[in-house]
Amino acid sequence: MSSPVTIEQPQRVAIVHEWLTSMRGGEKCVEALCEIFPHATLFALLHIPGSASPRIERMPIRTSFIQHLPWAFEGYRYYLPLFPPAIRHLALEEFDCVISSHHCVAKGVRTRPDALHICYCHTPMRYLWDAYDEYFAKGRAGILTRAAMRSVRGYLRWWDVRTASNPRHYVANSENVRARIKRIYRRDADVIYPPVNTAFFSVERRRENFFLVVSALVPYKRIDLAIEACKRTGDRLVVVGEGTEARRLAALGGTTTEFAGRLSDEEIRDLYARCSAVLFTGEEDFGIVPVEAMASGTPVVALARGGALETVRDTVSLQTGILFREQTVDSLVGAILRLKETPFDPRKLREFALGFDRHVYQAKMRDYVARRWSEFRSGIAANPKQ
Description:
Blueprint: E1 13-20, H1 25-36, E2 41-47, H2 54-57, E3 61-63, H3 72-75, H4 83-88, E4 97-102, E5 116-121, H5 132-136, H6 143-162, E6 169-172, H7 175-185, E7 190-191, E8 211-214, H8 223-233, E9 237-240, H9 246-253, E10 257-261, H10 265-274, E11 277-280, H11 288-295, E12 300-303, H12 308-311, E13 321-324, H13 329-340, H14 346-353, H15 358-382
Parallel strand pairs: 1-2, 1-4, 2-3, 4-5, 5-6, 6-7, 8-9, 8-11, 9-10, 11-12, 12-13
Helix pairs in contact: 1-15, 8-13, 11-14
């Protein structure tokens, strides 16, 4: 009996991410990649020591000149115009395979001509393309920030498109982002959903009468819709998260809204397990929060746009939540009322969520990189001058 064929993985691997300042969805993808390639070297424009998970912090981490600029840890986003040259000056000559984790400039990294570059794309830069007004319209940003962005937006868009040819292959985190890559970069992409640590969550029998939002408090998340809808229905709402919108949202809150601020993963897990439903009111590239909720047996009320169309089911054959069509208070209120009349089976919600487990992501990424590496090396061998 013949032994199974082992597909060779690249040995000298670099993982490139924009910045390591917290543990959000992009960093959880990086963490999973670090487990697949434990001997890789991790590159970032900026790294705040201790801000990432222990697995990431154990990696050899190399940073750019952004790391050493004044007030970089607090205000690194103000250095956005410097990100393209900073990513281009990272030294990756020693690496045979580069995996960029991209939502800003990571795909623009320079590699050797005979190195394989795979881009795992969370999204093309949101604030340059589809969501510019949500970040920089009047009332969303100060006058100086708006003026600065108007002056550099054209250059950054040009650079973003010009460097779209850098990766040999794109992997999108959803069909939603795959379409965006095609429209903006004119490149095809494969789809591998990002990892969710479903094993961390469990289905509890105790439920309480409140709704939950877990989100960064930033404009495009539209947390204001959840606040206003719960004020209208009289339901208690717990909002977990921090961000630039915190003060404005607190002023809207009234007596029905509780702002919990930043909580530990364990505290959030407890809220997922006890709440009636999670409200997901923004348009996301993918959106890990709905999957975490469903892994806890909790239904989701989500805007029927973006990644939620791939993670929340609202059909006769399978229902894991309620989708609302318009990004308005009226539409959300209607969805909340429908949710209250709809029975959900927590076990089926969790079963659906298991399809997005981190082990599924890791197995698919491991196989994908190995297959692309084998194809790449075969092409080099057949055409040494390429």
